[in-house]
Amino acid sequence: MKRPETAKIRNIALVGHGNSGKTTLTEALLFSAGATTRLGRVEDGTTTTDFDEDEIRRKISISTALAWGEWRGHKITLVDTPGFAAFLADAKNALRVVEGAVVVVGATGGVKVSTEKVWSAAAALDLPRVIYLSKMDKDRADFVRVLEDVRKNLSASAVPVQVPIGQESGFTGVVDLVRIPVVPEEHQISGSEQVKTVRRNVRTSVCHRNSMVAERHSKVTAHHARLDE
Length: 229
Ligand SMILES: Nc1nc2c(ncn2[C@@H]2O[C@H](COP(=O)(O)OP(=O)(O)OP(=O)(O)O)[C@@H](O)[C@H]2O)c(=O)[nH]1
Ligand SMILES: [Mg+2]
What we know:
The chain is α/β, with parallel strands linked by helices. It has helices spanning about 20-30, 55-60, 90-95, 115-125, 145-155, 195-210, 210-229; strands at about 10-15, 65-70, 75-80, 100-105, 130-135, 160-165, 175.
């Protein structure tokens, strides 16, 4: 990438409790952006940001690491911070030099004490935050329970912008509540049984599983409609 204009630079920290999935998410983001050609794994010691010998041996992040990729004309620097309590000072320092944070929460374990600590540190700096739920594919992953946990312990006004389709071994993807097109029933083309089943699962996932998600969806949609005016 050519030297980007300052307005096209974004620095984002990934913070959260130990083992929540920050390095794995960083790796996935770099791969999706085409910054790497191979998706590394923490287990194999092949990730971009856990490169230190000790990190590879212990399979945890020990210090903050930077990596960058290009996304829609922007240079995004990802700041992958360590989550274990002994290294939390590193994460808090990283928050001072970024414009936003991704707070990673495991969908199996929910919000932990260190999640609350990094959340408060980011809030004290007035940083915009998104919460990313990792491990939706693992046993005991529970989107609704963790969303309630987030609203109780981090922010009562947290709004889901994406919801998972299925969970645990049935996790197959996500629905973007902001971008999902609302197609009137009479205009929907009838499809194969498989298409109908997928559509039914998506609808169930978005609206019926939890009325809170449906209510928040309408708030997000209304908010975006106002922004578009
Ligand atoms: N099944 C599954 N495993 C995941 C997912 N995300 C992370 N993991 C696994 O969880 C473990 C911890 O992942 P990391 O990415 O190292 O977590 P971290 O938050 O960077 O950990 P620290 O930096 O040490 O705090 C690794 O074994 C990952 O492979 C996920 O979405 N699904
Ligand atoms: Mg890590």
